[in-house]
Write a structure and sequence with these properties.
Layout lengths: L5 E4 L3 H12 L4 E4 L3 H11 L4 E4 L14 E4 L5 H10 L8 E4 L5 H13 L3 E8 L2 H6 L2 E4 L3 H14 L18 H29 L5 H12 L6 H10 L24 H12 L4 H14 L1 H11 L11 H34 L5 H7 L10 H11 L10 H23 L5 H13 L6 H12 L3 E2 L6 E2 L4
Helix pairs in contact: 7-10, 7-11, 7-13, 8-9, 10-11, 11-17, 13-16, 14-15
The structure holds 6-phosphogluconic acid (6PG).
Length: 469
C-alpha cells in the first residue's frame, strides 16, 4: 500500500476542510481527532480514496513516509503542547510538526527550540480563509526554517488560492517567526476592518434609520467596485438574513451586542508598545470588543448620560453614501498604512528582508482580509521599496488628498450625534499626529523636567538640559 504523505491531527470544521483539500490534491492523508466520534463522522461524510483515518495516534505511525509531516490543528496554548508531548515518543529525527493554528509567536519560538534539541523539526504555518475556502483555496503563510518548509512546500502550494494574476497565495517570506508575526498582524487587520464596517453600519442605522436590508443593499453596491473584499461581501450577506424564529425581523436584531475575541488582536496591540509604531486602528478595534462585553455597565451609563444618538445637521443621505464609499476606501488605505508601518518597523529591527508587495499579493485572495485594494498596494510596494513611511508615497498621498475632507465630515457628523467612532477617529488622529511638524510634546517634556528633572533637548543647542526652578 502507498504510504501516506501527511498526517492531520484535529478535525474541527475549518480543519476538516483543509484535510479534504489536501486529499483532493492527491496527497494520501491520515486524519485523527482525539474524539473518536468526530473522526467517524468525518469519514462517513467525506471518505475518498486518499483519506485514511485513525482512532489512535500510534496506529499509523509506520504507514506514513519519512520524514513524517504532521499538521496539528488544535487550539493555541496548552492543547498544542499536549499534542506535541503525545507525539514525541512516536517520532524520529527530522520528522516535521506543523502548527497551523493562531498560536502566539513567542510560544512557537520556545517550541521550536525545545523540539530542535530533540532533532524534531517544527514549522508554524498560517492558514487563513473561511470554511469553504479552506476546502478549496486558503491563503497560506509558512514560517520557520527554510529546509523544513521545502519539504512541505508542494502540498502547501497545491492547496492554496490564486491571486488576481493567477499566482499562488502561498510563499515563504523570511526565516523563523517573520510570517507568524505578520499573520498575527493580519488578524489585527481583520479586527480593524470589521470594527470599521460595524461603525459605518451603526451610523446608517442610528442616524439615517435605515433597516438592515437597506444597509445590506448599500454594502452590496460598494462591493462591486474598489471596495470589493471578503468582509464587505459577507456584511451585505449577513445583514440581509431574516431570523428563522421570527421571519418578520432580521437576525442581526436578535444578536446580542457583545463581541468575543481570542488573542491575536491583543497580541498585535501589545506590539504597538514594544515597537513604538502605532496601530491605533487595531488597538481601538480590540478595545471596542472589550467595551462591548460590558453590556450592563453600558446600559447603566447610558441611562445616566442619556446618550440619545440625535440626528442633527445630517448630510443628505445620497451625499452621505458617496462620502461613506470614499471614506471606507481611504480608511482601508490608512489602516493598511499603519499595519505596514508596524511590519516594516519590526522587519528593520529584526533584520528581515521582507517584501511588502509579496505580502500584499498573498492576501489578495483566500484570506479573511482579501480585498481588491491589495492589488493596488501590491503595485505600490513593487515600485517603491525604499521609503520610511507609506504616507510618503505619491499614490497613497493622492488617495489621502482626494478623500480626506469626506473623512472629516463623517467623523464630525458622528461626534456631533453621539455615535462612537473608536476605530475611524483613531486613524484621523494618527494622521494628524504623524503629519504635524510641531507636536505638543515640548510641553510634556517641560513638565517632566519640572517635577523630576527628567531633562529635555533644545531646538537650538546640542545636548540635554535641566532647568532649576
Ligand atoms: C483567518 C482568521 C482566523 C480567525 C481568528 C480571529 O485568518 O482565517 O484570522 O484566524 O478569525 O481566529 O478570531 P477572534 O475574532 O476570535 O480573535
Amino acid at each position: 500500500m502507498k504510504k501516506a504523505n501527511i498526517w492531520l491531527i484535529g478535525l474541527a470544521v475549518m480543519w476538516a476542510n483543509l484535510a479534504r483539500n489536501i486529499a483532493k490534491n492527491w496527497y494520501k492523508t491520515i486524519v485523527y481527532n482525539r474524539t473518536e466520534s468526530v473522526t467517524k463522522q468525518f469519514v462517513s461524510d467525506f471518505w475518498n480514496e486518499n483519506l485514511i483515518w485513525s482512532y489512535d495516534l500510534k496506529q499509523f505511525v509506520d504507514s506514513i513516509e519519512t520524514p513524517r509531516k504532521i499538521i496539528i490543528m488544535v487550539k493555541a496554548w496548552n492543547p498544542v503542547d499536549a499534542v506535541i508531548e503525545n507525539l514525541l515518543p512516536l517520532l524520529e529525527k527530522d520528522d516535521i510538526i506543523i502548527d497551523c493554528w493562531n498560536s502566539y509567536y513567542k510560544d512557537t519560538q520556545k517550541r521550536y527550540e525545545q523540539l530542535k534539541q530533540k532533532s524534531i523539526r517544527f514549522v508554524w504555518c498560517g492558514v487563513s480563509g473561511w470554511e469553504e475556502w479552506a476546502l478549496n483555496w486558503p491563503s497560506i503563510m509558512p514560517g520557520w526554517d527554510r529546509e523544513s518548509y521545502e519539504q512541505i512546500r508542494d502540498i502547501l502550494h497545491a492547496i492554496s488560492a490564486n491571486d488576481f494574476s493567477w499566482k499562488k497565495c502561498e510563499t515563504y517570506i523570511w526565516e523563523n517567526w517573520a510570517w507568524h508575526y505578520i499573520k498575527m498582524v493580519h488578524n489585527g487587520i481583520e479586527y480593524a476592518i470589521m470594527q470599521m464596517i460595524a461603525e459605518w453600519y451603526d451610523s446608517l442605522r442610528k442616524l439615517y434609520k435605515l433597516n438592515p436590508k437597506e444597509i445590506s443593499e448599500i454594502f452590496k453596491k460598494y462591493n462591486d467596485w474598489k471596495l470589493n473584499s471578503y468582509l464587505i461581501e459577507i456584511t451585505y450577506k449577513v445583514l440581509a438574513k431574516k431570523d428563522s424564529f421570527d421571519e418578520n425581523k432580521y437576525l442581526i436584531d436578535y444578536i446580542l451586542d457583545k463581541a468575543w475575541a481570542k488573542w491575536t488582536g491583543k497580541w498585535t496591540s501589545i506590539e504597538w508598545f514594544d515597537r513604538a509604531e502605532s496601530v491605533s486602528t487595531i488597538w481601538e478595534a480590540t478595545f471596542a470588543r472589550d467595551i462591548s462585553e460590558k453590556k450592563q455597565l453600558r446600559e447603566k451609563l447610558s441611562n445616566i448620560y442619556n446618550t440619545a444618538n440625535t440626528s442633527s445637521e445630517l448630510i443628505e443621505l445620497q451625499e452621505y453614501l458617496k462620502i461613506l464609499e470614499n471614506t471606507l476606501y481611504i480608511w482601508m488605505i490608512f489602516a493598511y498604512a499603519q499595519w505596514y508601518a508596524l511590519i516594516k518597523e519590526t522587519a528593520q529591527n529584526e533584520n528581515w528582508h521582507i517584501n511588502l508587495s509579496e505580502i500584499s499579493r498573498i492576501w489578495q485572495w483566500g484570506c479573511i482580509i482579501r480585498a481588491k485594494l491589495l492589488e493596488f498596494l501590491t503595485d505600490v510596494f513593487k515600485s517603491n521599496t525604499d521609503f520610511e513611511h507609506i504616507f510618503e508615497l505619491t499614490d497613497i498621498k493622492n488617495e489621502i488628498q482626494n478623500w480626506l475632507n469626506d473623512y472629516k465630515k463623517h467623523i464630525k457628523q458622528n461626534m456631533l450625534n453621539e455615535i462612537s467612532s473608536l476605530s475611524l477617529s483613531a486613524w484621523l488622529n494618527y494622521f494628524y499626529a504623524i503629519t504635524q511638524k510641531q507636536s505638543s510634546a515640548n510641553l510634556i517634556q517641560w513638565l517632566r523636567d519640572y517635577f523630576w528633572a527628567h531633562t529635555y533637548e533644545r531646538t537650538d543647542k546640542q545636548w540635554t538640559f535641566h532647568t532649576e526652578w
